[in-house]
From TrEMBL, chain A:
SMART domains: WD40. Keywords: Actin-binding, Cytoplasm, Cytoskeleton, Repeat, WD repeat. GO terms for cellular component: actin cortical patch; Arp2/3 protein complex. Belongs to the WD repeat ARPC1 family. It is found in: Cytoplasm, Cytoskeleton, Actin patch. It comes from Piloderma croceum (strain F 1598). This is Actin-related protein 2/3 complex subunit. InterPro entries: ARPC1, WD40/YVTN_repeat-like_dom_sf, WD40_repeat_dom_sf, WD40_rpt. WD repeats lie at residues 51-83.
TrEMBL record, chain B:
One of its GO terms (biological process) is negative regulation of Arp2/3 complex-mediated actin nucleation. PANTHER family: GLIA MATURATION FACTOR, GLIAL FACTOR NATURATION FACTOR. GO terms for cellular component: actin cortical patch; nucleus. It is found in: Cytoplasm; Nucleus. This is ADF-H domain-containing protein. Its main location: cytoplasm. It holds the Pfam family Cofilin_ADF. Gene3D superfamilies: Severin (3.40.20.10). Keywords: Cytoplasm, Nucleus. It comes from the Eukaryota. One of its GO terms (molecular function) is actin binding. Belongs to the actin-binding proteins ADF family. GMF subfamily.
Length: 402, 140
């Protein structure tokens, strides 16, 4: 049984993380205006480069694996596309930014490259999604806005495998599927279950969250025929557009903020509960399978990482440890210096998980996922390592066919 | 007055032949663009008879163009006339440098084409409709 690989990247929240194609490098935004590129060195991740160009907090980053470009979106209403070039003066490879004018008048919240990496979608607080493509005639990135009928901030976007359809979850409590077909960039897509002959800004489906909560995360299944969304009313909904059948799984735990599909019949969701949960099912119904986190025992690895060799330098000094120990003095301290006090959570992540990404795939399904969260940790989980019960409240509700 | 973009003699000739060609039916269009590297005007394409929808298809979504249009206008009293209009095709998603060049050279181009009526189309393909042109030219 593989235990999850845990890395304490920073002492501040990780806003967003994304890996490059071979998983040797990581681009993160640490709650700041700059993005850091980290490389794996031994058992740790060390910062190798800083991308600074934004004036305000970077809210989302995405790394295109094939074309090796990074797109960063920020609260300063801009996005930059970064490309690796050789600096003529020093000869080193540097990341060169290209500004993308999104023409939105509020912050950008989420960004995703399309499957073919010729477009990217930026969700924003301006009640619009900017679809950006490269215009070779003018040598710059052009954005077109998807506006109707979004009534509030767009919280997340996800592309369909056909490079044209886009799912968006928004704070107006709806998950929608749009057509983001750009003339001269896309070829006419084949008909899918979502419709055919779709000009730009056509709505292919609009789904409300069951108890009315912000839709935090959306995701298309690997084939693109099923849509899942997680909303703030602690539910995960799975939509089969053929029926249309909408299956709601209402949880008694805290809401999920991020989700990804691992196979055509299973997905991983994570959020305020600080642990990734696996769901599985089909058109007949969906259930919770279990958690990827073993929450039955306090994490000895968690204790070790606080006192251990890894981690940020500042937190490892002897002086800091003295103060930390002073805090626990007087409380019943169990064996071998491990402070399992009431303040440490039983899960690996000590705070909300904000981002779940696929880490490793095999044979069409994802075998490992990576999560990052507000506690500054990056953890890589093995998807098959599911432990049922434990920290989960085992109450689920069943199907709700509309 | 300073001239940012030159109007070459060949363009002036093309404009003149376009203007004086006899038309019986349909709308004809001449599309001209600015070559940013050489800073001159260039003809892109000329259409003998084209509908407005096809014309909107031909024009780029993200680049400014000048379109000299011989528009088939049907008056309310049954008359048909073919006025010459200059469409300033300037979508807002175009690159800023091109937009500025385009705007600065509009006056010179209008003088070279000798067209009195200029219609602005700023929102791309949705803005180029028959109803819009008719209202602009003063016909119900």
């Amino acid at each position: 049984m593989a235990t999850p690989e845990e890395y304490q990247i920073a002492s501040v929240p990780i806003t967003s993380h994304t890996f490059n194609a071979d998983r040797s490098q990581l681009a993160v935004s640490l709650n700041s205006n700059d993005a850091q590129i980290m490389s794996r060195q031994g058992q740790e991740w060390k910062v190798t480069e800083t991308l600074s160009e934004h004036d305000k907090l970077i809210t989302a980053i995405d790394w295109a694996p094939n074309s090796n470009r990074i797109v960063t979106a920020s609260q300063d209403r801009n996005a930059y596309v970064w490309q690796q070039t050789t600096d003529p003066h020093t000869g080193r490879t540097v990341w060169k930014p290209t500004l993308v004018l999104l023409r939105i008048n509020r912050a950008a919240t989420h960004v995703k490259w399309s499957p073919l990496e010729d477009k990217f979608a930026v969700g924003s607080g301006a009640r619009a999604i900017a679809i950006c493509s490269f215009d070779p005639e003018n040598d710059w990135w052009v954005s077109r806005l998807l506006k109707k009928p979004i009534r509030s901030t767009v919280l997340s976007v996800d592309w369909h495998p056909n490079n044209v359809l886009l799912a968006a979850g928004s704070a107006d409590m709806k998950a929608r599927v749009f057509s983001a077909y750009i003339k001269d960039v896309d070829k006419r897509p084949a008909a899918t279950v979502w419709g055919e002959k779709l000009p730009f800004n056509t709505i292919c489906g609009e789904y409300t969250s069951p108890a009315g909560g912000w839709v935090h995360a959306v995701g298309f299944s690997p084939s693109g025929n099923v849509l899942a969304f997680a909303s703030h009313d602690s539910s995960v909904s799975i939509v089969y557009p053929g029926g249309p059948t909408i299956i709601n799984v209402r949880m008694a735990s805290l809401p999920y903020v991020s989700l990804i599909w691992t196979a055509e019949d299973s997905l991983v969701a994570a959020g305020h509960d600080c642990q990734p949960i696996v769901f599985s099912g089909s058109e007949a119904g969906w259930q919770v399978i279990g958690s990827l986190d073993d929450t039955t025992a306090p994490k000895s690895s968690g204790g070790a990482s606080r006192f251990g060799a890894s981690g940020v330098g500042r937190l490892n000094s002897a002086a800091f440890n003295t103060f930390r120990n002073a805090d626990s003095r007087g409380q019943s301290s169990p064996v071998s210096g491990q402070t399992s006090t009431g303040t440490e959570l039983m899960t690996v992540h000590q705070n909300t998980i904000t981002n779940v990404r696929p880490y490793q795939s095999q044979g069409g399904s994802v075998t490992k996922v990576s999560t990052s969260g507000v506690d500054g940790k990056l953890v890589i989980w093995n998807v098959s390592n599911v432990s049922g019960g434990g920290g989960l409240v085992p109450r689920l509700s069943g199907m709700n066919i509309k | 007055m300073s001239h940012t973009v030159d109007v070459p003699q060949s363009i002036k000739e093309t404009l003149r032949t376009f203007r004086f060609k006899r038309r019986n039916a349909g709308s004809a269009a001449l599309i001209v663009k600015i070559n940013k590297q050489k800073l001159i005007m260039e003809e892109v394409e000329e259409f003998e008879e084209i509908s407005l929808e096809d014309l909107a298809e031909e024009l780029p979504e993200n680049s400014p163009r000048y379109v000299v249009l011989s528009y088939e206008l049907n008056h309310s009293d049954g008359r048909k006339s073919f006025p010459l209009v200059l469409i300033n095709w300037a979508p807002t998603s175009s690159e800023i440098g091109m937009m500025t060049l385009h705007a600065s050279a509009l006056f010179d181009f209008q003088a070279a084409a000798d067209v009195s009526k200029v219609i602005e189309v700023r929102d791309g393909a949705e803005g180029l409709t028959k109803t819009y042109l008719d209202t602009q030219l003063g016909v119900r």
